[in-house]
Amino acid sequence: MAQLLLIKDANMENKEVDDIIGIFKDTHRFSDDEHFLFNIQKVEGYTQEELITFAQNKLPERPRIYRLKVANEWTFDVPEMEDAWKHTDGKWYMVVEAPKYHWTIKNMTPQERTILASGVSSSLDKLNTLSHLESKMCMNIKNMVEITELNE
Length: 152
What we know:
3-stranded antiparallel sheet, 4 helices, 9 strands
Protein backbone atom coordinates (compact mmCIF):
# COMPACT_ATOMS: atom_id res chain seq x y z
CA MET A 1 0.00 0.00 0.00
CA ALA A 2 1.02 3.61 -0.54
CA GLN A 3 -0.25 6.93 0.81
CA LEU A 4 -0.75 10.30 -0.86
CA LEU A 5 -0.29 13.48 1.18
CA LEU A 6 -2.76 16.06 -0.19
CA ILE A 7 -3.42 19.77 0.29
CA LYS A 8 -6.46 20.19 2.54
CA ASP A 9 -6.89 23.97 2.59
CA ALA A 10 -6.87 26.07 -0.60
CA ASN A 11 -5.99 29.19 1.40
CA MET A 12 -2.34 28.15 1.42
CA GLU A 13 -0.35 30.24 -1.10
CA ASN A 14 -0.07 28.85 -4.64
CA LYS A 15 -1.77 25.59 -3.66
CA GLU A 16 -5.06 23.95 -4.52
CA VAL A 17 -7.10 21.37 -2.63
CA ASP A 18 -5.98 17.83 -3.54
CA ASP A 19 -2.58 18.83 -4.92
CA ILE A 20 -0.30 15.87 -4.23
CA ILE A 21 2.56 16.96 -1.98
CA GLY A 22 4.15 13.54 -1.68
CA ILE A 23 3.80 9.81 -2.16
CA PHE A 24 4.72 7.74 0.89
CA LYS A 25 5.14 4.09 1.88
CA ASP A 26 2.37 2.48 3.90
CA THR A 27 4.75 2.24 6.86
CA HIS A 28 5.15 6.02 7.03
CA ARG A 29 3.49 7.47 10.14
CA PHE A 30 2.25 11.02 9.71
CA SER A 31 2.50 13.42 12.64
CA ASP A 32 -0.52 14.94 14.35
CA ASP A 33 0.31 18.23 12.62
CA GLU A 34 0.34 16.54 9.21
CA HIS A 35 -3.04 14.94 9.94
CA PHE A 36 -4.38 18.37 10.91
CA LEU A 37 -2.94 20.27 7.93
CA PHE A 38 -3.27 17.71 5.14
CA ASN A 39 -5.52 14.96 3.80
CA ILE A 40 -4.08 11.47 3.54
CA GLN A 41 -5.34 9.16 0.78
CA LYS A 42 -4.49 5.48 1.14
CA VAL A 43 -3.85 3.56 -2.10
CA GLU A 44 -4.16 -0.21 -1.66
CA GLY A 45 -2.52 -2.55 -4.14
CA TYR A 46 0.31 -0.21 -5.20
CA THR A 47 3.71 0.41 -3.68
CA GLN A 48 5.22 3.85 -3.28
CA GLU A 49 7.62 3.10 -6.15
CA GLU A 50 4.82 1.97 -8.47
CA LEU A 51 2.78 5.11 -7.76
CA ILE A 52 5.79 7.40 -8.26
CA THR A 53 6.52 5.72 -11.61
CA PHE A 54 2.85 6.00 -12.63
CA ALA A 55 2.74 9.69 -11.66
CA GLN A 56 6.05 10.51 -13.37
CA ASN A 57 4.74 8.98 -16.60
CA LYS A 58 1.87 11.51 -16.43
CA LEU A 59 4.27 14.46 -16.47
CA PRO A 60 4.75 16.19 -19.82
CA GLU A 61 8.19 16.54 -21.36
CA ARG A 62 9.61 19.95 -20.25
CA PRO A 63 12.79 21.07 -22.02
CA ARG A 64 14.29 24.54 -21.92
CA ILE A 65 14.05 26.18 -25.34
CA TYR A 66 16.16 28.98 -26.83
CA ARG A 67 15.52 31.63 -29.48
CA LEU A 68 18.72 32.78 -31.16
CA LYS A 69 18.82 36.32 -32.45
CA VAL A 70 20.99 35.56 -35.50
CA ALA A 71 22.03 32.08 -36.54
CA ASN A 72 25.76 31.26 -36.98
CA GLU A 73 27.06 34.59 -35.65
CA TRP A 74 29.03 35.22 -32.49
CA THR A 75 27.34 37.60 -30.07
CA PHE A 76 27.54 38.83 -26.50
CA ASP A 77 23.75 38.71 -26.26
CA VAL A 78 22.27 35.97 -24.15
CA PRO A 79 19.71 33.99 -26.14
CA GLU A 80 16.08 34.29 -25.15
CA MET A 81 15.21 31.30 -22.95
CA GLU A 82 11.85 29.85 -22.00
CA ASP A 83 10.49 26.62 -20.58
CA ALA A 84 8.21 24.56 -22.77
CA TRP A 85 6.09 21.47 -22.26
CA LYS A 86 4.72 18.84 -24.62
CA HIS A 87 0.99 18.08 -24.40
CA THR A 88 -0.38 14.58 -24.96
CA ASP A 89 -1.68 15.96 -28.30
CA GLY A 90 1.97 16.22 -29.40
CA LYS A 91 2.03 20.02 -29.50
CA TRP A 92 4.51 22.24 -27.65
CA TYR A 93 3.30 24.96 -25.27
CA MET A 94 4.98 27.71 -23.23
CA VAL A 95 5.30 27.30 -19.46
CA VAL A 96 3.86 30.62 -18.32
CA GLU A 97 2.99 29.68 -14.75
CA ALA A 98 4.57 26.46 -13.49
CA PRO A 99 2.52 24.68 -10.84
CA LYS A 100 3.99 24.41 -7.34
CA TYR A 101 3.08 20.70 -7.22
CA HIS A 102 3.13 18.43 -10.27
CA TRP A 103 0.01 16.32 -9.69
CA THR A 104 -3.54 16.50 -8.39
CA ILE A 105 -6.48 14.19 -7.78
CA LYS A 106 -9.03 17.01 -7.59
CA ASN A 107 -11.21 15.39 -10.29
CA MET A 108 -11.43 12.09 -8.39
CA THR A 109 -14.87 11.39 -6.94
CA PRO A 110 -15.41 10.20 -3.34
CA GLN A 111 -16.40 6.78 -4.73
CA GLU A 112 -13.12 6.56 -6.66
CA ARG A 113 -11.17 7.50 -3.53
CA THR A 114 -12.94 4.66 -1.72
CA ILE A 115 -11.89 2.29 -4.52
CA LEU A 116 -8.24 3.35 -4.06
CA ALA A 117 -8.36 2.78 -0.31
CA SER A 118 -10.23 -0.53 -0.66
CA GLY A 119 -8.42 -3.82 -0.41
CA VAL A 120 -11.21 -5.59 -2.29
CA SER A 121 -11.43 -3.61 -5.55
CA SER A 122 -9.92 -5.08 -8.70
CA SER A 123 -6.61 -3.89 -10.11
CA LEU A 124 -8.47 -2.69 -13.22
CA ASP A 125 -10.83 -0.56 -11.08
CA LYS A 126 -7.84 0.97 -9.32
CA LEU A 127 -5.97 1.59 -12.57
CA ASN A 128 -9.05 3.30 -14.06
CA THR A 129 -9.35 5.38 -10.90
CA LEU A 130 -5.67 6.33 -11.00
CA SER A 131 -6.24 7.77 -14.46
CA HIS A 132 -7.67 10.75 -12.52
CA LEU A 133 -4.22 11.42 -11.07
CA GLU A 134 -3.37 14.30 -13.39
CA SER A 135 -0.46 16.53 -14.26
CA LYS A 136 -1.25 20.11 -13.26
CA MET A 137 0.70 21.65 -16.17
CA CYS A 138 -2.16 21.42 -18.68
CA MET A 139 -4.83 22.45 -16.16
CA ASN A 140 -3.74 26.10 -16.15
CA ILE A 141 -5.10 27.95 -19.18
CA LYS A 142 -2.09 30.32 -18.99
CA ASN A 143 0.13 27.38 -20.00
CA MET A 144 -1.80 26.75 -23.22
CA VAL A 145 0.18 29.27 -25.31
CA GLU A 146 1.19 27.22 -28.35
CA ILE A 147 4.75 27.56 -29.67
CA THR A 148 4.00 27.45 -33.37
CA GLU A 149 7.69 27.34 -34.44
CA LEU A 150 8.16 24.03 -32.64
CA ASN A 151 4.92 22.55 -33.97
CA GLU A 152 5.72 23.03 -37.66
